[in-house]
């Protein structure tokens, strides 16, 4: 059984979270560390946007400020995510790893097996989302809103037909980064306040549709689970789903300094986050 590193970063600043994900890719690429599973949270609660999103057209920045949220652009694609009461995970592994298929879609399937097993450790019968109809596939290419959880993509998790986690993936110089959100609870009103809609009528229609398509863990369970219980379930899930053993790892002082440098140079800069 292969040993991967496991890092629980706990709650961190949004720029730090993105910088650490990028540095883990670099260190793995350089052979300094094995593949990594990382868990983390956000302090403050944060709106992250996908690499290709147009902030001024899609995001209500006044609402982001009024809610005292952090804001950061991810290196991955996808749509906007409100990181609040959630467990965020990231997986860093080489493209040429023996367990990783060549295509992005199939790599999602392999990595998401860890998520699938995690949900089942919480006694939730999660399943892979597999868009089949022409309409479903077209919706993935042309999403109707800027909200990530508006619809499940390939091999994301659904319970009773509703999306329970959202993920995004990038590949850079031979390394896969997949990270995503496992939602414990969600404030739908706050979430939809953060985005721009053509009209209030459209916003309400989108929000009503969202409730039918997405759900949080604690909305599904009869007894509320704690963050520690969720972490334990998904750590076991990744171990069984990927057939690996996770070894706790703490960054060295040198590595911490490199992360902080990247925060200052990139993810803490407006020119990255707003693409000015």
Query: What is the name of the CATH topology?
Result: BirA Bifunctional Protein, domain 2
Radius of gyration over all CA atoms, rounded: 18 Å
The SSE order reads EHEEHHEEEHEHEEEEHHHHEHH
Helix content: 40-55%
* N-to-C span: 47 Å
**CATH C-level class:** Alpha Beta
List the uncertain runs: 148-152
In total, how many domains does the architecture comprise?
A: 1
Strand fraction equals 15-25%
Question: Mind telling me the CATH superfamily name?
Answer: Bira Bifunctional Protein, Domain 2
Number of helical stretches of at least 4 residues: 11
InterPro entries: aa-tRNA-synth_II/BPL/LPL, BPL_LPL_catalytic, LipM, Octanoyltrans_LipM/LipL
EC number: 2.3.1.181
Family: Belongs to the octanoyltransferase LipM family.
GO molecular function, one term: lipoyl(octanoyl) transferase activity
Describe the protein's architecture and organization.
This protein is an alpha/beta fold. It has a single domain (2-273), classed as BirA Bifunctional Protein, domain 2, CATH 3.30.930.10. Helices cover 40% and strands 24% of the residues. The chain contains eleven helices and twelve strands. It has helices at 14-29, 55-58, 61-66, 104-121, 134-141, 188-193, 200-213, 217-220, 227-242, 253-267, 270-273, and strands spanning 2-12, 36-42, 46-49, 70-73, 81-83, 86-94, 127-128, 157-159, 162-163, 165-172, 175-183, 244-248. The strands form three sheets. A six-stranded mixed β-sheet has the order 10-11-6-2-1-12, sandwiched between helices. Helix 4 (104-121) packs across helix 9. It is globular and about 55 Å long. The model is unreliable at 148-152 (pLDDT under 50).
